[in-house]
Design goal:
There is one protein chain. Helices cover 31% and strands 27% of the residues. With 271 residues, the protein is α+β, with helices and mostly antiparallel strands. The chain has a single domain (5-187, 209-267), classed as Arylamine N-acetyltransferase fold (2-Layer Sandwich), CATH 3.30.2140.20. The strands form 2 sheets. An 8-stranded antiparallel beta sheet has the order 5-4-3-2-9-8-7-6, covered by helices on one side. The termini are far apart.
Length: 271
């Protein structure tokens, strides 16, 4: 596929081609997450999830929809490659509310800049973490005030967050919370396809059973889990239960930029 970088930069409202350094990486990831919502609504509508480059670009850029991690980070990966970054995918086990050993249901990127590896993630629906150097003990502060830390232990690499619960999708509690863990193992496209298929289709799982939408805000976060709406901005939290499909549809459009028809909202089965 010939990647249309101009269309992508316009979609994320980044006015200029980023520099090939850590600042440029951070700028692209931040703009991406501010303007392309995390969402699984096509799973709930029975449409399935395709993660080839053409399908992801058509949905997230051309059709101006959102997607979940395998879509978001496929697009992000393609964009970084077009800009000139060296990047490859990693698979992770999400630890939020996990019991036992969770599956490899999350995708992130390993980006190498001047010989230093960084983790970058434009597709985590639980919270927003800036790119971080792959160094044990590395820390980064998100715009919502949360402190992220990378640790390395017997589980591999673990991303830990300590920040306001309102600036998340509602999972986790106060104090340090493990977000996900990952290894640096090479990941093939077949691995991504298998993980994406299971994540999008396994009965009884989060993305199959719930309608989930979130987006990063300049100093916070907003999310809808089924009918529960939460917003954290300027240090303040707003929580509300949506009891009218018209309000739900309006929230999707005004806060997340997702325009569904009344019939599509009805098909989600929330009301």
């Amino acid at each position: 596929m010939s990647f249309d970088l101009d269309a992508y930069l316009a979609r994320i409202k980044l006015p200029a081609r980023p520099t090939l350094d850590a600042s440029g990486l951070a700028a692209v990831q931040r703009a991406h997450r501010l303007h392309i919502p995390f969402e699984n609504l096509d799973i709930r509508l029975g449409r399935g999830i395709r993660i080839d480059s053409e399908s992801v670009f058509a949905k997230l850029v051309t059709a101006r929809r959102g997607g979940y991690c395998f879509e978001q980070n496929r697009l992000f990966w393609d964009a970084l490659a077009e800009i000139g970054f060296a990047a490859r995918p990693l698979l992770a086990r999400t630890l939020l509310d996990a019991t036992g050993t969770p599956g490899l249901t999350h995708m992130l990127l390993l980006v190498t800049i001047d010989g230093q590896d960084w983790i970058a993630d434009a597709g985590f629906g639980g919270s927003y973490a800036p790119p971080m150097p792959l160094v044990a003990g590395a820390e980064a502060t998100a715009p919502d005030g949360a402190l992220f830390r990378l640790i390395e232990d017997e589980r591999g690499w673990v991303l830990v967050r300590n920040g306001p619960r309102g600036a998340t999708d509602g999972r986790g509690g106060s104090g340090p919370v493990d977000q996900y863990r990952f290894l640096l193992t090479e990941v093939a496209q077949a691995d991504l396809d298998m993980s994406n298929h299971w994540t999008a289709t396994a009965p009884g799982t989060r993305f199959v059973d719930m309608s989930i939408v979130s987006i990063a805000l300049p100093t916070g976060y907003a999310a809808i889990n089924d009918r529960r709406y939460g917003r954290h901005a300027g240090g303040e939290d707003l929580m509300a239960e949506i009891d009218d499909p018209r309000v739900y549809r309006l929230r999707l459009s005004m806060m997340f930029g997702i325009d569904l028809s009344a019939d599509e909202v009805a098909a989600l089965g929330l009301f």
